[in-house]
Amino acid sequence: MSVAGSFASVAHAGYAAIVINDADGQVITAVNADEPNHPASLAKMMTLYLAFQAIQNGTLKMDQELPVSSWAAAKAPTKLDLRNGQTITVEDCVLGMITKSANDAATVVAEGLGGSEGHFVEMMNAQAQLLGMSNTHFANASGLPDPEDSTTARDMSKLAMALYHNFPQYSHYFSTKDFMFRGRLVRGHNNLMDKYPGMDGLKTGFTNASGFNLASTAVKDGHRLFSVVMGGRTAGSRDKLMARLLDDGFDNQETPAELVAQAGERPAATAVASTKARRTTKGGVATKATAVADASSTSRRHHRRGAKTEAVASAATCSKKRRVPRVRHPPRAPRPPQARR
Fold first, then answer.
1. pLDDT one-digit tens code per residue, 324-337
2. Which of 148, 157, 274, 333 has the smallest count of CB within 10 Å of its CB?
3. Are 30 and 21 in contact (CB under 8 A)?
């Protein structure tokens, strides 16, 4: 079960948004764009960046089979349910990360390129610095909950733009809505692509600590925008805000900060959890709480997006249940001797 405030971190689940004109790099809207937040599955954009880089330089091939380790197979959902000892193609890993945000697929790529996920994380952070993502630190290849991961909306926009600019031949993968994997249809999470004309990528993300994140790009009349929303209260409020940001961006208008704040407002149950978490202490010093921690320090579960997840998150933040008095029954009469064994 998720436990509020189970770890302290420099990141917090605060709302943030940014919109950038791709043509000239102009920032049209920026609200809390440099505030630290957890990336959640937006971290997979860096895993994809390094995968595309390796494919481009010949280190990997799309049809290459990569082994699935026990470490990768044991990753928490969402996942492709890979098994230890199996193999999977690089392309299926790419599609699995983009559509279902598969954590096992991300780990397979990490181990395939880095030898271990730990070494791959070093590669991720080194590449982040090369891209000017100075306020980002990745902790794993998938974005699963970790107190050490941190990024900003501005840094994620830099990564999104770099993916399109540096690997245009692979950008079509980000518009994938579903794909067939071993006889079953794997559906994607980016529902806004079905609703917003011109949107053709990129990536969703969610943990309790991060809120609902989304990196998007859309084109209208040959004009492309990149936008990032972090800390959305629900998938719906996040998507609604993203649509408004893009609408305003295509009109070259700034989106009011109040609208960004509304999309990130937390329900009352979460606010209670935040207050309780701030009261906890560690070594006599109050720990900094996230809105709702996505996992305890032992389980680190990664929840599915949507209403079911909201219910799980809300349940995790409820106060202790009232104890129900135990009903005491009169003692039973002893069995007759002949009935005993």
1. 344 444 444 444 44
2. 333
3. no
